[in-house]
Amino acid sequence: MGKRAKSNLNSLKAMHELVRLSYLPNLRNSTFTYESKATKNYNCAAWAIAIINKAISHDHPYNWDPKVPRTQHINSYIKYYENRGFGLCNSGKYEKGIEKIVLYSDEYKEWQHVAFQLNKKKWACKMGNWEDIYHNDVHCLCGGMYGSTLTYMSRKFTWKRKIKRLAKLWWIKILSMKS
Prior knowledge:
By secondary structure, the chain is an alpha+beta fold. The chain has one domain. 30% of the residues lie in helices and 21% in strands. It has four helices and seven strands; from the N terminus they run αβααββββββα. Strands 1-6-5-4-3-7-2 form a seven-stranded antiparallel beta sheet. A hairpin with a 5-residue loop joins strand 4 and strand 5 (123-126). The longest helix has 21 residues, at 3-23. The chain starts with a helix and ends with a helix. The model is unreliable at 4-9 (pLDDT under 50).
């Protein structure tokens, strides 16, 4: 690739970043890292439960739990995750042996996003069709397109789920290193 093509590509990436940060104003002043390449293979709702081969959405009946109403209302997403072993909890404070997720919703109580607790200091999420990111504070995604209401959920940690999650994280890293 020539110098001009690289320059144009870098300009395009910078413009893409500015657009993304305009949708998430609090992310601009936060510490976060990109952890994958952009992909449409999965979304945040799937990534929160270690699925990387399909998107989970009330709009996709073949990927949605038939026992849960197909609406964007936050209660539908709470029910979706309850059917996967999660229950409501009071905070995102790290607890050993517990998996946590945080659901974001807007002022109309419509679900917008979900992130999962990676470890004591970091949260992870898939940014729509964009990259996966790791961030230190769940509030960095509040405001803008994800709304400002946080709903925390948790379930007991199992080794099977932990190994599945680590394998998926490793696989995403390998795919991101290619090209």
